[in-house]
């Protein structure tokens, strides 16, 4: 092989490697976005359930969000302000009816009482399955 052919082969090889890295980065970005959506949905669900304490309506003003924000900020440093937690609660309240309906259509009757936990588990399984299914083709 002459130097020109080697250079062309190397160039194509390098481009293929770069494309694999770009595809992986896009996939990781999408996976992270989905994971964060599920995480904030779950945080919102837990806040609503804690605030309502089994009642139909919440007794606001108990100080849950500021206390939770302080705890999470101490533990994770940033990203859990009161406004972020308020948005997580709103996110859950807005989207839970449609998400729960979709999941309950997929679940058996015995599973329907554990919809939120099942949703998180199913998402994690799907992400793992897709990560394992990535094929690096050149």
Entry summary:
By secondary structure, the chain is an all-alpha fold. The chain is built from 4 helices and no strands.
Explained architecture:
The chain is an all-alpha fold and 138 residues long. The chain has one domain. It contains four helices and no strands. It has helices at residues 3-52, 64-76, 82-106, 115-133. Helix 1 packs across helix 3 and helix 1 (3-52) packs antiparallel against helix 4 (115-133). Residues 134-138 have low confidence and may be disordered.
What order do the SSEs take from the amino end to the carboxyl end, as H and E? HHHH
* Count of distinct strands: 0
End-to-end Cα distance, whole Å, is 21 Å
The largest pleated sheet is described as:
none
Low-confidence stretches: 134-138
Radius of gyration: 22 Å
Number of domains: 1
Number of helices: 4
Keywords:
about 140 residues, mainly alpha, 4 helices, about 0% strand, disordered C terminus
Write the topology of this structure.
Elements: H1 3-52, H2 64-76, H3 82-106, H4 115-133
Helix pairs in contact: 1-3, 1-4
């Amino acid at each position: 092989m002459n130097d020109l052919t080697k250079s062309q082969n190397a160039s194509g090889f390098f481009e293929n490697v770069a494309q694999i890295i770009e595809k992986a980065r896009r996939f990781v970005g999408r996976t992270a976005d989905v994971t964060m959506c599920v995480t904030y949905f779950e945080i919102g669900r837990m806040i609503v359930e804690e605030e309502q304490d089994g009642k139909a309506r919440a007794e606001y003003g108990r100080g849950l969000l500021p206390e939770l924000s302080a705890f999470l900020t101490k533990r994770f440093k940033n990203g859990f302000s009161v406004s972020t937690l308020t948005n997580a609660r709103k996110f859950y309240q807005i989207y839970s009816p449609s998400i729960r309906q979709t999941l309950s259509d997929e679940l058996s009757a015995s599973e329907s009482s554990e919809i939120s936990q099942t949703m998180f588990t199913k998402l994690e399984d799907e992400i793992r399955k897709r990560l394992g299914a990535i094929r690096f083709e050149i």
